[in-house]
Amino acid sequence: MLLKLAGIGGLVGALAAAWLLRAAQPWPAGGAADQPAAAPPAALEYRGVAIQLTSGHRAVETYGPAIEEIAELGANTVLLATPAYMEHARSQAIFIEARDTPAPADFVELIRVAKGRNLRVIVMPMVLLKHPRGSEWRGRIEPPDWPTWWREYRRLVEHYADITREGGADVLMVGSELVSTEKNTAEWIKVIEAARRRFPGKLGYSANWDHYKPIKFWDRLDLVGMTSYYTLADKKSPPVEQLVRNWEPIRDDILGWIAQINKPLMLTEVGWCSQEGAASAPWNYYQNQKASPNGHEEQRRLYEAFVRAWDRAPGLTGVIWWEWPPSAGGPADFGYTPRHKPAEAVLRTWMARHAAAERGSPATDGAVDGGAEAPRR
Questions:
Q1: pLDDT at res. 129
Q2: Is the pLDDT of residue 101 over 90?
Q3: More confidently predicted of 13 and 193
Q4: 11: closest CA among 332, 333, 343, 341?
């Protein structure tokens, strides 16, 4: 996969107003989306946005404003994704790069900044490959000495368990998309037990979208996390109705499985680049690296389709949108952020609608219709 690395101006406000009017229209026929848009969404414990912490320099000054903006969006959660590294998929050591990662004291302060804005906080360490060879990514790591690797990985999780405890975070994800490790259930249980000894909050794991069913340690965790980078179209600029239809069998399969294992589901990464073709390969940041009105519109359609398909999903406890970096976003940006793009209007109205449902009151602003970025290996 790829690493998907304040005030809002008049353009976004106008877009939001337009989409609020559009949101009042009925949803198209088909599955769970065939309901009035005014129906309340399923209650979500975590409605949030992710920030990738990719710099250790003046971390509070760098990421504090992004946390403020996420709170202003109407979120009740922020996910702080933080990197650790291996040199490549066949190397041994796991290490933290000080230039790329906030120091522990700064990390604790970031958590406290978020808690001060009444945000729930999820911390998610991610093992990335510093110098991947060819098509390597972290889902295929094969270190020469697995016992040593597991000891180092437990220490990494313990390090972040201490930080999450001191900062008062709510959830620690004990891993993300480490597909080749998931067959070793006994070692994962050791990791989870080590995290529980140090952190009193909830624990989860973020599985890759195509490899969540084989995992055998879900029963040791409080929630199931997974990414959502499914192929939803085979051509550029698909219509929203097609995207909704293509979501439905995927959603139903996931929810049927969730009901069987009886664990709450958190979608830890929901997002698409504002690139033409994003619906066909959502994980591929490099497929079409240019900003265009059509690319921004495709991103908006993907946001709207997700909302239509998933907003009343039983068993869904959280949605984390990917992502909200401290960079500007806007018309020249082709990355994952919706910041200052048409998709932001969909996100804002979705947040407002869920906040209103949480309060048990009608949404006053309408129903929802619906750094640099680097390779994530």
A1: 96
A2: yes
A3: 193
A4: 341
Cβ-contact 78, 50 below 8 angstroms? yes
The closest alpha carbon to 172, from 58, 310, 63, 266, belongs to 266
Cα 348 to Cα 4, 185, 190, 282, 345, distances in angstroms: 20, 40, 40, 21, 5
Cβ(236)–Cβ(253) below 8 Å: no
Per residue in 283-308, pLDDT tens? 888 888 899 999 999 999 999 999 99
Q: What is the 3-state secondary structure (H, E, C) of 336-349?
A: CCCCCCHHHHHHHH
Q: How far are the Cα atoms of 103, 288, 290 from residue 294, in angstroms, in the given order?
A: 40, 12, 10
**What's the CA gap between 14 and 18, in Å, rounded?**
6
What token pair was written down for 19? 């989409």
- Tell me how long the chain is: 377
Q: Which residues of 267-303 are buried (b: 16+ CB within 10 A; e: fewer)?
A: bbbbbbbbbbbbbbbbbebeebeebeeebbbbbbbbb
This prediction has a pTM of 0.87
What are the b/e assignments for 93-110, b being 16+ CB within 10 Å? ebebeeebbbeeebbbbb
In the CATH hierarchy, which fold is given to the domain comprising 30-359? TIM Barrel (3.20.20)
Tell me if residue 95 falls in helix, strand or coil.
strand
Confidence label for 358 from pLDDT (cuts 50, 70 and 90): confident
Cα 265 to Cα 218: distance, rounded to the nearest angstrom: 11
Residue 362: band (very low, low, confident or very high) from pLDDT cuts 50, 70, 90? low
Neighbours of 344 (CB within 10 A): 25
Q: Which two tokens stand for residue 376?
A: 């994530």
Rounded Cα–Cα distance for residues 136 and 89 (Å): 6
The Cα 174–Cα 154 span in angstroms is 9
Q: Rounded to whole angstroms, how far apart are CA atoms 104 and 260?
A: 39
What is the dihedral sign for C-alpha 77, 83, 88, 90? negative
Question: Residue 172 in contact with residue 201, Cβ under 8 Å?
Answer: yes
pLDDT in tens, 25-76: 333 333 333 333 446 787 799 999 999 999 999 999 999 999 999 999 999 9
